[in-house]
Amino acid sequence: MRGRRAIDALRHEAGMYTGPLRALQGKIVPLFYGFFSGVVDGVEIGVLILEWCPRNDWVTFGRPTEGELLKRMEAVRMLHLAGVKHGQLYERRDSLRLYDGRHFLRAPDGTMRIVGFQHAKMHRCAGGLRECDSVKSPLEGRCRELCYAEVHGRRAMGLVGEAPWRPY
To answer: Is the entire prediction scored with pTM above 0.85?
Structure first.
């Protein structure tokens, strides 16, 4: 990354990995190896070094499988239990978008990793959907990010109708 704002965002993400996400490294977030910044040819640059997750081409793989949606849901639940809100995981609850997959990577062992914590915040989670809630229930007083993950997880389990796939 280059430029002051981008580097500040990376610095924030590094702080998330070394702080509230430390215990989740290698489980639902990648292992964090360091943040480095400097000036090259008069341009300020920065880089994060993270665990390699080779199966992460969300454009090529397209629509996520049911198993992947369930892994995403569990990862988001663990993230919120740790008191962190990512802030950029899902655009909508009524359809899946290609862009929704950009922050979910698959590690070599098949487990899910969440990345891209530049906009993450500490969060006192209000909770997701209750068992009796419809996927169309109002979300007032609940955590929207967690609810969206749970809606897509319920669809994956066949508990409600399938979400339309909207690549773009």
So the answer is: no
